[in-house]
Design goal:
The protein is of the alpha/beta class. The protein has 3 domains: 216 residues, Enolpyruvate transferase domain (UDP-n-acetylglucosamine1-carboxyvinyl-transferase, Chain, Alpha-beta prism); 206 residues, Enolpyruvate transferase domain (UDP-n-acetylglucosamine1-carboxyvinyl-transferase, Chain, Alpha-beta prism), CATH 3.65.10; 236 residues, P-loop containing nucleotide triphosphate hydrolases (Rossmann fold, 3-Layer(aba) Sandwich). Helices cover 38% and strands 19% of the residues. The chain contains 24 helices and 29 strands. It has a 5-stranded parallel beta sheet with strand order 23-27-22-28-29, with helices on both faces. Strand 20, helix 12 and strand 21 form a beta-alpha-beta unit. The longest helix has 20 residues. It binds shikimate-3-phosphate.
């Protein structure tokens, strides 16, 4: 049986509400995706000690701070790619009258926030727009929220939940009417915590939350698997060569529209072992079994749209293989998701040769059994990338998806799971014929590195990698960890400097380095060799020191490090230096590309505000709120550029341990890594009997 990661919507709410509870909440099965990490990271900045989200969905405990316990943040709150984080926090923080600035990546910055701030403003909330009208970045200004009564033109769980959270923070009754029922996870969770919330009517649907109590009961919750993630596999099972079983999928009736539509298309799907998670009124869940078989075209629209809004990309993919023409209508909301999903689907379907027609509120797709082939773009949207991953895995199709790492937003491990289903192996090798997949795709690189079994050969000391965004302190940390462990610090920067020196000495003009420099580098002998407890660069047999730090090299090194052939060229010396183990390597792609089989991978993070603070301190600049905010925004833009860059984009390695250093001293963060290295040793010792 396959398992999918925890439900994204439930995970966000469980994190936020646990922080507000009185007492310790116990949560299991939370989604460890980037979106939920954004919510967890922000809660930490607001003063709640949220542990790292375990990558296996293991249990965590959160000590709630009570309804008034969160504190005003310094710097900017980074919502990343997550609309749910941004909108729910706009509601909560304005209800609590906590001043803060919220921002996100370019995709999130393009999404409308007025749908939340307008009704909040009408109730007395205040916001300042720091960017485009109705978009992030937005400042929440201290203000008292009054009565909250709102009829929403869209059926949006984010709008509804933002208002409920605002009412919770402000101690107010809330009444929201939506045109059709949107997902009701917030209502269910609030009830379990002792808040009175009622919903009535199918369309319009009215939700009334009574004036909240002053204390919320802590949660004890197991989050079911996300049906929005399971949907991809259901389509694979229905249209692929063999059926599939998926364990423990959330079956909340406000989310199961995708099952109803697939069944209407003729898919054979069975729910087994259905149950209510935790207690009556919790979240229903069950195992899903899908059998292969032909599908027929259908019409999708009307009030069922909110119950399957996130599944439309994969339903459109299913429609390419259905008999007849499928029409999807009333789905204009798709235009303001992580991408304009109508336009993204139409462009990509056309790019692979499917017949499709764009409609203002949806699309029409003609089914066929023609082979679909070509390159598609993710448009920075996890669900677009996964929908086309599945289309490419269907028999006969060959599709390359550009930005595969984006799936980490909601479904870390998606590509590996697809590969394990045997559906993806062909596509993986084919993709190397054309544009190479993004370096972050771990499976794409396995063949040119040491095999995973090598790692099991425990005759050597561990290899440790440290990756992380700019300003996370990875190189100073790596150096200190190596020093205390008696390991060598593997610093790729020195090799980039040596490559820069070689190119400078070659006399080739700098404009020609990207195209013609590889010959010069191939002719040079580049090594990292241990000397007095450090790895030093040896170029053509000679140890290099001061030359590597000359102003000419310093000026050019960043540009050289962005040249693909240079990165390829230094892989060999880096891997060679790590071969014997006993190294701590830091960089932006150490755990993903250079040493994908490292024994311990650490991903260092810190809140934007903290990283900004460290940067400014390092530069000796005096700290004030305006400077911190400016530096935070600059770092957010830099993160985004680093994630999107073509060469060595910044990615959290799939199997990395994340270490959020926001509240840690340098010493404690170094110790935490050393502990992790030591427990690695223990886990490799034979068990004591
Ligand atoms: C979500 C609600 C939906 C959905 C999103 C998650 C939530 O958005 O598309 O992925 O967790 O509340 P809208 O509320 O904007 O429809």
């Amino acid at each position: 049986m396959i398992r999918v990661p925890g439900d994204k919507s439930i995970s966000h709410r469980a994190l936020l509400l646990s922080a507000l509870a009185s007492g310790v909440s116990e949560l299991e099965g939370l989604l460890p995706g980037e979106d939920c990490r954004s919510t967890a990271g922000i809660l930490r900045v607001l003063g709640c000690e949220v542990p790292e989200l375990p990558s296996d969905g293991g249990p965590i405990r959160i000590q709630g701070l009570g309804l008034r316990g969160l504190s005003a943040p310094e710097g900017v709150l980074d919502c990343g790619n997550s609309g749910t984080t941004a909108r729910l926090l706009l509601g909560l923080l304005s209800g609590l009258s906590i001043p803060a600035v919220l921002d996100g990546d370019p995709s999130l910055r393009s999404r409308p926030m007025g749908r939340v701030t307008d009704p909040l403003r009408a109730a007395g909330g205040r916001f300042t727009e720091l960017g485009a009208p109705g978009r992030l970045p937005l400042r929440v200004v201290e203000a008292r929220i009054g009565a909250l009564r709102y009829t929403s033109p869209v059926a949006s769980a984010q709008v509804k939940s933002a208002l409920l959270l605002a009412g919770l923070g402000a101690g107010r009754r809330v009444e929201v009417t939506e045109p059709a029922p949107s997902r009701d996870h917030s209502e269910r969770m609030l009830r379990r915590m002792g808040v009175r919330v009622e919903g009535e009517g199918e369309g319009p649907h009215r939700i009334v939350m009574s004036e909240p109590p002053s204390n919320l009961k802590a949660l004890s919750l197991r989050v079911p698997g996300d049906i929005s993630s399971a949907a991809f596999l259901l389509v694979l099972g229905a249209l692929g060569p063999r059926g599939l079983s998926i364990a423990n999928v959330g079956l909340n009736p406000t989310r199961t529209g995708v099952l109803a539509v697939l069944e209407r298309m003729g898919a054979r799907i069975r729910a087994e072992n259905t149950r209510e998670m935790d207690d009556p009124g919790g979240e229903p869940a069950g195992d899903l079994v899908v059998l292969p078989g032909p599908l027929n075209a259908v019409r999708i629209g009307g009030s069922e749209i909110p119950s399957l809004i996130d599944e439309i990309p994969i339903l459109a993919v299913a429609a390419t293989r259905a008999r007849g023409t499928t029409e999807i209508r009333d789905a204009e909301e798709l235009r303001v998701k992580e991408s304009d999903r109508i336009s993204a689907m139409v462009q990509n379907l056309e790019a692979v040769g499917a017949r499709v027609e764009e409609l203002p509120d949806g699309l029409r797709i003609e089914g066929s059994n023609r082979a679909l082939e070509g390159k598609v773009r993710s448009f920075g949207d996890h669900r677009i990338a996964m929908a086309f991953g599945i289309l490419g895995a269907l028999p006969g199709n060959r599709i390359q998806v550009d930005d595969r790492g984006i799936v980490d937003v909601s479904f870390p491990g998606f590509w590996e799971l697809l590969e394990a289903q045997g559906s993806f192996s062909g596509q993986g090798s084919r993709s190397s014929e054309g544009t190479p997949p993004r370096a972050s795709a771990p499976e794409a690189r396995r063949d040119d590195t040491e095999g995973p079994d090598r790692q099991a050969a425990m005759g050597r000391a561990p290899i440790v990698t440290l990756d992380g965004p700019a300003g996370s302190g990875k190189s100073s940390t790596a150096r200190e960890v190596a020093r205390r462990l008696g390991f060598l610090h593997l610093d790729s920067g020195a090799l980039y400097r040596a490559a820069t020196l070689t190119l400078l000495r070659s006399g080739l003009p700098a404009e020609e380095w990207p195209d013609r420099g590889s010959g010069e580098l191939d002719g040079a002998k580049l090594e990292l060799v241990p000397e007095e407890g450090e790895l030093v660069v040896r170029l053509n047999g000679e140890i290099q020191g001061e030359e590597l730090r000359s102003p000419e090299v310093t000026e050019r090194v960043a540009e050289v490090a962005a040249i693909p052939h240079v990165r390829e060229r230094i892989l060999g010396p880096l891997r060679e230096a790590a071969r014997e183990g006993g190294v701590v390597a830091d960089g932006r792609d150490m755990g993903t590309v250079v040493l994908p089989h490292a024994d311990l991978k650490v991903y260092l993070t810190a809140s934007l505000a903290e990283r900004a603070r460290r940067r400014l301190l390092q530069e000796g600049v005096e700290l004030d709120a305006a400077r911190l905010e400016e530096e935070s925004l600059r770092l957010a833009a830099r993160d985004d550029a680093d994630r999107r860059r073509e060469v060595a984009p910044l990615r959290r390695p799939q199997d990395a341990v994340e270490l959020d250093t926001t509240g840690l001293t340098f010493d404690r963060q170094v110790e935490a890594i050393i502990q992790a290295v030591r427990s690695l040793d223990r886990s490799q010792e034979p068990p004591v009997t």
